[in-house]
Fold UDP-glucose 6-dehydrogenase.
Amino acid sequence: MVKICGIGAGYVGGPTMSVIALKCPSIEVAVVDISHSRISSWNSNNLPIYEPGLEEVVNHCRGKNLFFSTDVEKHVNEADIVFVSVNTPTKIRGLGAGKATDLAYWESAARMIADVSKIITTNLWSAELSKLADNAFLAQRISSINAMSALCEATGAEVSQVSHALSKNTKIGPKFLNASVGFGGSCFQKDILNLVYICESNGLIEVANYWKEVIKVNDYQKGRFVKRVVTSMFNTVSGKKIAILGFAFKKDTSDTRKTPAIDVCKGLLGDDACLSIYDPRVTEEQIQKDLSMSSSVVKQVSVVGDAYEATKGAHGICILTEWDEFKSIDYERVVYENMQKPAFVFDGRNILNVDKLRGIGFIVYSVGRPLE
Ligand SMILES: NC(=O)c1ccc[n+]([C@@H]2O[C@H](COP(=O)([O-])OP(=O)(O)OC[C@H]3O[C@@H](n4cnc5c(N)ncnc54)[C@H](O)[C@@H]3O)[C@@H](O)[C@H]2O)c1
């Protein structure tokens, strides 16, 4: 759960944080203050501040996802985001008295944040490059394991076994080692392209080319997946119904920005396949927009309301997002029975039990695993 800490339970901090808590029930909001009387009043039936509707908002959220506390350091330490709204009165003595702002409260809050939280201080360019490198390194890891998946298929290795072995090396660790149809999302490609641009602007062509390869391998992986589908299905998907299960770039989101499903679907449509697309959260309108469908393509695509409808009468299934519900579909009695034979499954997220599906009768391709 994302945690927000608001320092200063005054006129600004109290109401602002209360409304954040109301509007974002999945976020935990702590409002902290050094003033015990203010905090105890926020925790009473007699709020220290009046604003129309404020009492209702506080009564609705307090104790659920809105907390008032004097334990400033604890909440700052635990928070993902810290807002500061402490008082900044006019100085009453010393330099600028009567005019300048007294920043003593602000400075004391800032120093406390620096002491208890894990703020990393860098120069401007380090901050910029750290942000880009963070996403570039994650994307690079995915492209690395995806590149390995191609080699696994060629040699007879299993990429999940290779990732498992790698994950045991504490210097490598277990995260971001799942081979798939490719990475998506709004950030990875954008940030790598930005990095490439900065490298080129600084004349670092070799470095730029190095990072470009991360994107190229990702494109290669998507293209390889399409090629696998077409070649497996007797070198033609023309006029064949293919069920596309999942369109979002990852599970539990409706976000389709840079989703690999766009390239895979366009690749299959280019080979004249008929697609029946189902995603639990992505709207038909969004899918049509993403596939920038011309009137001829519209005839080739239908967006349907569940996985059974999508797979009914299909020659093949492509799993393109790792939604949990795709694991519990009744592949044996419903899906297989209602599909054309031979029935193909192309698992682009490696979420299904390949041996079980093969036992049912499916011809199964999963990324980085030898074909049967
Ligand atoms: N943008 C606007 O429209 C707007 C309007 C009003 C105020 N402000 C600004 O917002 C800030 C807060 O204003 P306010 O009216 O809420 O002030 P306030 O005096 O009502 O509340 C500030 C609170 O901060 C607490 N505080 C001070 N130092 C602290 C610390 N180190 N740790 C924890 N708590 C601390 C005080 O005890 C006080 O309760 C000020 O800088 C003010 O200028 C902005």
About this structure: The first helix runs from residue 13 to 23.
